[in-house]
Design a protein that fits this description.
The structure is a single chain. With about 290 residues, the protein is an alpha/beta fold. α9 crosses α11. The strands form 2 sheets. It has a 4-stranded parallel beta sheet, with helices on both faces. Strands 6-5-7-8 form a 4-stranded parallel beta sheet. It has 13 helices and 8 strands.
């Protein structure tokens, strides 16, 4: 298993634990991650509001570097926002020769180009499709027997591109969680929005959305995520939300590769659990 690896900006800073735990579990299963050389920001959400062509050219540059490097066709992207931006470029390149020509005219300054042949894949796609529960069970060193885990997908790894899961009723994490020995928490909030950047612009809206998710997760030992923005929203505002709703809504929030890494026998430090903002003592005691 070989993949070009695009970490993106968040995984270099606020979601560093997502980056390191992803690298750790992929190494555990023998996968080769080749970080794209001199990768740059994909534009996040700001580029599209500034200039549409810029919002395509920025992620396209990273795809072009990967395409030039070798014959490996898959680009693995853990961040859902980055995945969406890079995926959009490949879709546009394949469907619109005119847009492809415009993108390549910009990339020519760096002496690179895209053809539209690369496959941009979310980490969850790779874990559920290429690895699957069989690989999880094969690498299992410590099980989560007795744990109830709520899978949270968020929006951007599922929409608008329907690739590896049902965007309305996603279930791709379920076999992975069960392979690690845990029970999947029954709920219908896995694909609901966490508010995303509304936490900065319309916090009251964001807080209510996160509150609904945390309330639905009551009874679970943890929520697992695959998105830096979702992770931040779910773990950073628990005390504020608990005070507003006059109930304890504290909940352990883990990235999926952290959860799997612990099941693979990796230490808390190897998956950088100390960087998480919300890991309850009860979770640690139960797993110890």
């Amino acid at each position: 298993m070989k993949y070009h690896y695009y970490p993106g900006c968040s995984l270099e800073r606020t979601a560093f634990e997502y980056n390191l735990s992803t690298r750790a579990i992929m190494a555990s299963v023998g996968a080769d991650l080749m970080e794209i050389e001199e990768w740059t920001c994909c534009g996040a959400s700001a580029a599209d509001a500034t200039n549409y062509l810029l919002s395509l050219a920025l992620p396209a540059r990273n795809i072009a570097i990967a395409e030039k490097a070798n014959d490996v066709m898959d680009i693995l992207v853990p961040c859902s926002a980055c995945y969406l931006n890079l995926k959009k470029v490949t879709q546009k390149a394949r469907s619109s020769p005119e847009i492809l020509e415009k993108i390549n005219s910009i990339l020519a300054e760096d002496q690179v180009h895209i053809s539209g042949r690369m496959n941009v894949r979310h980490l969850l796609d790779v874990l559920s499709t290429d690895m699957g529960p069989k690989t999880i069970r094969h690498n299992l060193k410590k099980t989560f027997t007795g744990f109830r885990v709520a899978p949270y997908y968020g929006c951007q790894c599922l929409r608008p591109y329907v690739v590896f899961d049902d965007p309305e009723v996603p279930c791709s994490m379920n076999p992975l969680i069960e392979a690690a020995g845990a029970t999947v928490h029954p709920w219908n909030m896995g694909a609901k929005c966490c508010g995303a950047s509304h936490m900065n612009t319309k916090m009251d809206v964001g807080l209510e959305l996160v509150a609904a998710i945390l309330k639905a997760a009551k009874g679970a030992d943890a929520i697992v995520t695959v998105c830096p923005m979702c992770q931040m929203n779910l773990e950073a505002y628990q005390q504020k939300i608990s005070r507003q709703h006059c109930e304890d809504l504290s909940m352990t929030i883990l990235y999926l590769p952290q959860f799997l890494g612990l099941a693979f026998g990796l230490s808390e430090h190897q998956v950088r659990l100390e960087l998480n903002l919300s890991v309850n003592d009860s979770f640690r005691e139960k797993f110890s």
